[in-house]
């Protein structure tokens, strides 16, 4: 896994797609894209002395509030993925990080923006991200370093549509899901969203757009339910399904709290593999 951090403040990494990163069709899993994004941003933070261990020594921590990922195509088993990540100008307390990925041939795979917040561990209150900007640095403003739209959209539960819960599951947080601050790792929520979907659906479709909100922290022992499906009042196109996903926690008093939410769009998997890769899989024969 090669890592380069140049003077333009962009971290560049190369990942090799292992068998465990792919689905039954040897195509990269959706959660693997989030794992690459998370690993690249974490390594970037580490090289800027701003990773979780460093922040915790300072009495601070990172939390992610939102991530939006747009997927152009999927890579296959054994293929390399070239990932770039950088910081962008902050908005209020939010610290946007952009991640792009491409195949070795140069064709784009995905673009993602995630919004992070630095919290004071003593007060659990956010702090201004100006210090983080100073540590990370920003890319130059030129044609080779475009800025991506990164205006934060606040999640509003009262505007979320009622869904037809076609897919449900009751995930059980495992020790392997926890990270160094004893919270459930961000990628595990995405995994649970995918776990809620029926195999027939996942055999047919791959995600092309995911907008994800982490609303509350989840811990070992929490009683959780993930519901996924289309909006009840919306017409559905079977070629490009549009789903919503809600993760709720059953509290000690029996009430349910919404702890995570996402909106996703899908396309048939045959439309999301580059032509040369389709031939490799035998889909064009």
Descriptive report:
By secondary structure, the chain is an alpha+beta fold. It folds into two domains: 151 residues, Hotdog Thioesterase (Thiol Ester Dehydrase, Chain A), CATH 3.10.129.10; 126 residues, Thiol Ester Dehydrase, Chain A (Roll). The chain contains six helices and eleven strands. An eleven-stranded antiparallel beta sheet has the order 1-2-4-5-6-3-8-11-10-9-7. A hairpin with a 5-residue loop joins strand 10 and strand 11. Helix 1 packs antiparallel against helix 4. It is globular and about 45 Å long. The two termini are 34 Å apart.
What is this structure, in a nutshell?
The chain is of the alpha+beta class. The protein has two domains: 1-151, Hotdog Thioesterase (Thiol Ester Dehydrase, Chain A, Roll), CATH 3.10.129; 160-285, Hotdog Thioesterase (Thiol Ester Dehydrase, Chain A), CATH 3.10.129. The chain has helices at residues 30-47, 52-57, 130-136, 186-195, 199-204, 275-281, and strands at residues 3-5, 11-16, 60-71, 80-87, 95-103, 108-120, 167-169, 205-214, 223-229, 242-250, 256-268.
